[in-house]
């Protein structure tokens, strides 16, 4: 989220919070695809991290991008911490350790999504090259210790950094040393949201396995294929994970609201200043818990929107659904991740097939799969089957869904072409993480330094 919301509309009832989520429902012909991708910035001279301040810095990248694109700077206590496209179609934001993120515009098809990503990377390279900066596209920081990792001057992150060690053992690693690719997708009704939420929650462990690309930490193998996936197992379990309530057969907007109300807040923004509110839940906030602590203590819709952005279930519900299970990766995977989910969720026949496949998958067994995937990826077993076999079945459903969508590019090629990186994973029976480990033990001569050259943008 590039900019925290400042909508001053008062919140007077829980029903208004539920109505806010329900207002995201839209006709199928207005469904869009919003893709987000993060990458690590590094100096090509020595593979060291890029600081926020300085002549060659994250700040210089943002200023250069603003000048080049004409995008509006997003400021926080006098520092530029993001950029916004003037009409609201896309933004650039910073993750806590300087991970550079494009939050893409809501687009109609995957051809546009891939074009957007390529254009963004081309402009970014144009700005970064004179500064000696390049970008790494994998899921976890392979070399830098936590102490070596830069800190971005973003107020919400200062609050999170203080809070994370109180609620989990790996929250700071999540913040500062991971990257992801995500896709945001629409729903037409509460029932449509429920079906998509339940299918995608059950299949997030599969996405983690398919996109596993974080096998290194601090210069050596970490014993995992998705270190990022393992980090999410103990980040803050009050606000992250599988969301048990979503497995209910009658799950709806109000269930998500009731869960969100009892999650501790991070902050409220008043007059551009961030107030630490980690000691109260949103429900307590609505009941007057901040009266006497801050002058404008009554909750607003901006506060609710910001609170929703600080919840981290594997599928996050706002006025759309966010798929959050995948590691970051090379540029082709920026197109493959939305292709995987669009094929499954935006075609009626595909959604029904995915729903039938996963209908009787229970919370506990999906949780067990989620726990197994960081170490085993597609070699994990589910109901006495290899996850490779499940992946083949799911990928077939997705491919058929994309073909039925029949969104063609200028050469008459449909969107299923973007699944090619996942086809390669299944053909080789090896994830990107396993490819990197093979290189580490072979051509890389047990060094992670070559990862910066081989997997850079």
From TrEMBL:
Q: Which GO terms describe its molecular function?
A: ATP binding; glutamate-cysteine ligase activity
Its top-level enzyme class, in one word, is ligase
Pfam families the UniProt entry points to: GCS2
Q: Which cysteines are joined by disulfide bonds?
A: 114-335
Output the superkingdom of the source species.
Bacteria
The reaction(s) this protein catalyses: L-cysteine + L-glutamate + ATP = gamma-L-glutamyl-L-cysteine + ADP + phosphate + H(+)
The free-text function statement in the UniProt record for this protein reads: Catalyzes the synthesis of gamma-glutamylcysteine (gamma-GC).
From the Swiss-Prot or TrEMBL record, give the protein name.
Glutamate--cysteine ligase
Organism this protein belongs to: Sinorhizobium meliloti CCNWSX0020
